[in-house]
Amino acid sequence: MRLKNQILLQINKYHILYLALFLYFIWPSRFAMIYYENLNLDDIFDNLLKKTTKNSSITDKINCNYDELFEKNQFFYKDPFSSELLNKAEIKQGGEYWPENCNTLFSVAIIVPYRNRANQLKSFLRYMHNYLRKQQIHYKIFIVEQADSKAFNRAKLFNIGAKYALRENFPCLIMQDVDLMPLRLGNIYACTERPRHMSSALDIFRFNLPYYGLFGGAIAMTSDSFIHINGFSNMFQGWGGEDDDIYARLVNKKYRIIRFNPSVAQYTMLKHSKEIPSPERYQFLRSGYLRFDTDGLNSLVFREISLKPLDLYTNILVEV
Questions:
Q1: How confident is the model at residue 24 (pLDDT cuts 50, 70, 90)?
Q2: Could you say which of 2, 74, 201, 280 has the lowest number of CB atoms within 10 Å?
Q3: b/e for 56-77, b at 16 or more Cβ within 10 A?
Q4: Contacts of 296 (CB under 8 A, 6+ apart)
Q5: 174 pLDDT above the threshold of 70
Q6: How far is CA 172 from CA 70, 166, 189, 193, 201, in A?
Q7: Which one, of 161, 138, 142, lies nearest residue 91 by Cα?
Q8: Is 283 in contact with 113 (CB distance < 8 Å)?
Q9: Phi, psi of 59 (to 5 degrees)
Q10: What is the DSSP string of 243-266?
């Protein structure tokens, strides 16, 4: 009898182990490790920069209410929101939107560097317009497209997009890649007073943060902060390095970044072929501190080929 009980106990242990492994693989976000400063849902709203451009305010309306957004933190990346664009007529020319029934508290320019990813761009625009309108914010999507055949310069394209957004007095800049989709509505597209790493819980990393200084994928920064650090370096051609460099720029100016809790800051990455890392990225990173004040927004040189307000976005076609 004792032997039988021991065998049953051993079997139960294995069952528990297998169940734990099963849950870990099908529900990775449940086991995301948190070792960094983050804002819980209850604290997010109070930490947001409540500032808009003039054209998004309707003075005879009440302010939009954001309570449900954070209380529910709804999972949104599903049909029909990810598969079809709903109520397209609400979106203004140039990819701009603000709610008509209430005064939004947030205005944001969404800047996306782009070249030769037509399918991903289509998926991004379809989903993001559905997602962003649910958040009752004023937003405008700028797609900054590199037209030449030089190595892709993601950082420089962010700087270019920021230049155009600043002309329209957007107080908040969100810079993100075209292959990233936010999963939960509580991850509001607005700025905090501190620079925010938005995509800190990415599915390809099992919703864990690979290292503390990671500041890429999707980031949010006030326009004043972006100007203060002189934007991105323009030197990083090809894949890699520019995210670490802008983190160093923030540290140099005494900024402390913030993140939302992993239960909020979840993203999925669309599949795409891997880019070849730039062999020069480490050299530029090592010498970056010498160029913080001379390489960036204040040294930006490019050629505008066209500026077109299209149905779902403003296209800025440039040579870098």
A1: very low
A2: 2
A3: beeeeeeebebeebbeebeebb
A4: 159, 229, 230, 231, 232, 233, 234, 249
A5: yes
A6: 20, 9, 9, 10, 22
A7: 138
A8: no
A9: -65, -25
A10: HHHHHHHHHHTT---BEE-TTTSE
Do the beta carbons of residue 221 and residue 228 sit within 8 Å? no
Distance of alpha carbon 301 from alpha carbon 185, whole angstroms: 37
Residue that is written with structure tokens 């939960």 in the block: 184
Reply yes or no on whether the pLDDT at 22 is more than 90.
Answer: no
What b/e readout covers 16-41, taking b as 16+ CB neighbours within 10 angstroms? eeeeeeeeeeeeeeeebeeeeebbeb
Q: Percentage of the chain surpassing pLDDT 70?
A: 88
- Per DSSP (E only), the strands in the chain are 38-39, 96-97, 107-114, 138-146, 172-176, 180-182, 196-197, 201-202, 218-222, 259-260, 266-269, 303-309, 314-319
pLDDT tens for 238-285 read 888 899 999 999 999 999 999 999 999 999 999 877 777 787 888 888
